[in-house]
Write a structure and sequence with these properties.
It is a single chain. By secondary structure, the protein is an alpha/beta fold. The chain has eight helices and twelve strands. The strands form three sheets. Strands 8-9-10-5-11-12 form a six-stranded mixed beta sheet, sandwiched between helices. A four-stranded antiparallel beta sheet has the order 4-3-6-7. The chain has a two-stranded antiparallel ribbon with strand order 1-2. Helix 3 (about 125-135) crosses helix 4 (about 145-155). The two termini are about 25 Å apart.
Length: about 280
């Protein structure tokens, strides 16, 4: 679980908002060491003079589902990228199942499943062939069973033989989720999974995500969809200019979180653009 010391609390029916830093979190109580699935310490990601993530600390135990909200440019995707190992932190560390996330050593990758804006699918291969390819990379012995189960899980059993380039956006999104779950990871990272889905595909995805709340997996989902994110989360966070401006259990957010969310974003921490630094080497996301 995440807990930010002196973070926002509800006073007089309103959430008290204050941006918090990673150093304020370090001394707070989180999951016990042997129950932590993901632990991040003082994560920072810089793109030249722009700071996308500014000292985030995070601890999540098994079975927790964290939804992260925030405006464009808040650093949400950069944070998720560092948790997945796709981005190297400018400073700070990430541990998954007690192993350091390090691109020079790959054993921790077995514990993570990632759904990002890039589907990591091969258009010339069929849906089934894509899953078989990734299953082979993971050395899965029961591949036939796993591929069939995942295709059925995401409603694509009837399109197993279709080439990915012929599938709709929603179908590719569902297949990417099947790929992310194929090796039964303990930590699942989702970046805007509802983007571009029609109501039917969104309903199917919602069902799959609900299944992930089985107490076995830990999930971190970045989304702009407040309704979907709130409905499924056990914890929520609002990221503004690289920091968690609000964080807590879902029940503490109350029933009018949308109004509070806009206030949190408006009252969030100031710009983290560094002064007198070299020109930007990229754009934070």
């Amino acid at each position: 679980m995440l807990r930010l010391r002196n973070g926002p609390r509800r006073t007089g029916g309103r959430l008290s908002i204050r941006a918090v830093t990673g150093s304020e979190v370090a001394a707070t109580v989180g999951p016990s060491a042997n129950s932590r699935v993901v632990e991040a310490r003082n994560l920072v990601r810089e793109y030249g003079s722009a700071v996308a993530v500014a000292g985030v600390d995070l601890q999540l135990g098994r079975g927790e589902f964290l939804s992260i909200f925030g405006p464009n440019g808040a650093g949400k995707s950069s944070l998720l990228g560092m948790l997945s190992g796709a981005l190297r932190p400018s400073s700070g560390t990430v541990h998954v199942m007690g192993r350091t996330v390090d691109d020079r050593e790959a054993t921790w990758r077995r514990h993570i499943g990632v759904l990002s804006h890039r589907g990591f699918l091969y258009g010339q291969l069929t849906a089934e062939e894509n899953l078989r390819f990734y299953g082979t990379l993971y050395g899965l012995s029961d591949l036939d069973k796993r591929v069939a189960e995942q295709l059925r899980r995401v409603g694509l059993e009837g399109r197993a033989g279709s080439r990915v380039r012929a599938l709709s956006h929603g179908m590719r999104q569902r297949l990417s989720l099947a790929r992310a779950l194929l090796h039964d990871p303990e930590l699942v990272l989702l970046d805007e999974p509802f983007t571009g889905l029609d109501p039917s595909a969104a309903a199917l995805l919602r069902g799959v995500l609900t299944e992930l709340r089985d107490g076995h997996r830990t999930v971190v989902m970045v989304t702009h969809n407040l309704r979907e994110g709130l409905a499924i989360a056990t914890r929520i966070a609002v990221q503004v200019t690289g920091r968690f401006a609000w964080e807590g259990p879902r029940h503490e957010a109350g029933d009018d979180f949308e109004r509070e969310y806009h206030r949190i974003v408006e009252d969030g921490s100031p710009s983290l653009k560094r002064q007198g630094s070299p020109g930007s080497a990229g754009e934070p996301t």
